[in-house]
Specification:
single chain; about 270 residues; alpha+beta; 4-stranded antiparallel beta sheet; about 20% strand
Length: about 270
């Protein structure tokens, strides 16, 4: 049976798609108060975000993971000889180590709000491999309460689409509003991050101009557009970093006055 046929069967059974739209890479629709769009790429360029994600993901990746089994006499006890112990503590898949696996999974949960891991099983149903999902995932809920996932694998050409049952998917949520999908930590700090990126952009422009203020050159009487353009170019050249003389000296014509219009750098 082809994937398209199989998806048609599942679609007839499902109740609704658990997907909030429109969505962005930080988990929720953009706030109307943001002056610039945020994304994972721009967020990770902030040193604070990068460092926090690095610390949390490193801590999670370095932790040992226990498999517990219930015993009627002793309660929950660790079983280091469980078949899946090797998967979660040494090698989840042949192409990735446990440290890299856990670090990447934690970063995805923090930055995207959801982390997905597909459990690959053998003929008996025992876990043999854990595949970290990096592509688009859509979660569907059937009328009987069970769920399944439609996963796109971007590493294939053309893009491979796979249907994964809920019992074969490890879905780790960050904070959630509905219990099904998580939202990124960045979502709750969107306005703060927008302010931080705007401040960095402003600082970059300020220092790129040689830490000189913007302002208005006032002249007595009427000035032709050509003379105003030439005067502006001469003034900018005197303080341009490209000329190698930021903070230079400008010679002003008689009657000219400079009024700064920017906030004090302090």
């Amino acid at each position: 049976m082809k994937i398209s046929d199989l998806f048609g069967v599942f679609s007839r059974k499902e109740k609704r798609a658990i997907q909030e739209a429109p969505v962005d890479s930080v988990g929720l629709p953009y706030s109307s108060t943001l002056t610039s769009p945020l994304s994972l790429q721009t967020s990770m360029q902030l040193s604070t975000v990068y460092r926090c994600v690095e610390v949390v993901s490193d801590a999670m990746a370095s932790q040992p993971w226990e498999i517990l089994e219930y015993d009627s006499l002793h309660g929950w006890i660790e079983n280091p000889f469980h078949d899946s112990f090797f998967l979660i503590n040494s090698e989840p898949a042949p192409s990735i180590s446990k440290y890299t696996f856990m670090k990447t999974l934690t970063a995805k949960v923090l930055l995207e709000g959801n982390g997905y891991v597909i459990i690959r099983r053998d003929e008996r149903g025992d876990p043999q491999r854990l595949d970290l999902v990096g592509g688009l995932v859509t979660m569907y809920k059937r009328s009987n309460g069970t769920v399944y996932y439609l996963v796109e694998h971007p590493s294939y050409e053309p893009v491979k689409t796979e249907i994964v049952e809920g019992f074969n998917m490890i879905h780790i949520l960050n904070f959630s509003y509905n219990g099904y999908l998580g939202v990124s930590t960045l979502t709750h700090a969107a306005n703060t991050m927008n302010l931080a990126t705007s401040a960095e952009d402003s600082a970059k422009g300020f220092f790129a101009s040689g830490a000189n203020m913007s302002g208005i050159l006032q002249a007595e009487g009427k000035m032709t557009p050509e003379k105003a353009t030439a005067l502006k170019a001469a003034w900018a050249a005197a303080f341009s970093t490209a000329s190698g003389t930021p903070g230079g000296i400008a010679v002003m014509e008689s009657g000219l006055k400079f009024d700064p219009v920017t906030v004090n750098p302090k």
